[in-house]
Amino acid sequence: MREIAVFGGSSHPALTAEICAHLAVPQRPVLLKRFANDCLEVQLQSNCRERDVFIIQSLVRPVQEHLIELLLMADAARGASAARINAVIPHYAYARSDKKDAPRISIGGRLVADLLVTAGVGRVLTLNLHSPQVHGFFSVPVDHLHALRELAGHFRQRDLSNAVVVSPDLGYAKSAAAFARRLGLPVAAGAKERVSDSEVHITAIIGDVAGHDVIILDDEISRGTTVFELLDRLREQGARSIAVACTHGLFADNALDKLAASDVTEIVCTNTAPLEAEHPKLTVLSVAPALAEAIRRIHDGESVSSLFDH
Ligand code: R5P
To answer: What is d(CA 290, CA 157) in angstroms, rounded to the nearest whole number?
Structure first.
């Protein structure tokens, strides 16, 4: 078996360190230089020749910087004769750009997938892509994990006797239903229309939420526009209490503080993105054990899907 070599980009050092600790392998050093003309250069400071290389980089703010860094790291590994280059991307930011829904619009999700492959990436490990079709943008194998097990484990500690899971939109209803099944709960979904990055309309909720303890489940919270709109509808419909859960807690535009200041009972996310703020209402669950186990299985040629099936 070829030796494993794990490198981390600069986007989320804490997660990289945690994954390496679970794998019981050292994190290999990387030198990142920025020249006076603002160009970046990466040097992998450990032998890659014939190694099974894993590069961990979450595409979080500043996304473009972290993307270029990942591409340069893959290119450096290819130039150093790596046997295989695996990109571990806990949060694949461009996944929301996945369709031509306006004239002359870019589809970043597919373009970034092509760029990664061009840079030498031969396999991708990621978590909770915004929509399933993004998986198909890659011309190399993708292991697409979710965090439903971690999130369900958290909510199993709560009194769920009167609870219902609510997806903000029909697109995420399938995942919300899978999450609800894990907890033995009913599921409901919002009829959501996104007008712009900062405006969404949820016109109806399909399913019964009146008098229930609601767990909102979404793939990500960015500005919180979606969740705030859903909170309004849920209150109007008489939800008894509301907790919020997501995989990618991006919390742009002060969303965490705003959400924590509302009447939600708790906010739960995972650590696919580094969090700048903390709050007593916030619980951050680690996906490092799941990613480390997936990396181990990929390296050993074992099934990954059998571990993380819905
Ligand atoms: C969008 O369709 C996703 O499922 C999330 O609801 C969305 O990305 C959240 O973004 P924001 O918090 O800015 O509404």
So the answer is: 20
Q: How far apart are CA 116 and CA 122, in angstroms?
A: 9
| Ligand 1, atom nearest to 224 Cα | 12
Ligand 1 atom nearest 229 alpha carbon? 14
The distance in angstroms from the start CA to the end CA of the chain is 30
Q: Is 221 in the pocket of ligand 1 (CB under 6 A)?
A: yes
Q: Read off the amino acid at residue 217.
A: L
Nearest to 289 by CA among 60, 15, 87: 15
What is the rounded distance in angstroms from the CA atom of residue 216 to the CA atom of residue 264?
10
Nearest CA to ligand 1 atom 10: 222
> Would you call 145 helix, strand, or coil by DSSP?
strand
pTM over 0.90: yes
Catalytic-labelled residue, pool 33, 100, 174, 192:
192
For ligand 1, mutation pick of 131, 179, 199, 218 (most atoms within 8 Å of CB): 218
Lowest mean pLDDT among 9-18, 41-50, 127-136, 224-233: 127-136
As a three-state string, the secondary structure of 278-298 is: CCCCEEEECCHHHHHHHHHHH
The three-point CA angle 101-103-109 to 5° equals 50
Asked if 57 and 8 touch (Cβ cutoff 8 Å), the reply is: yes
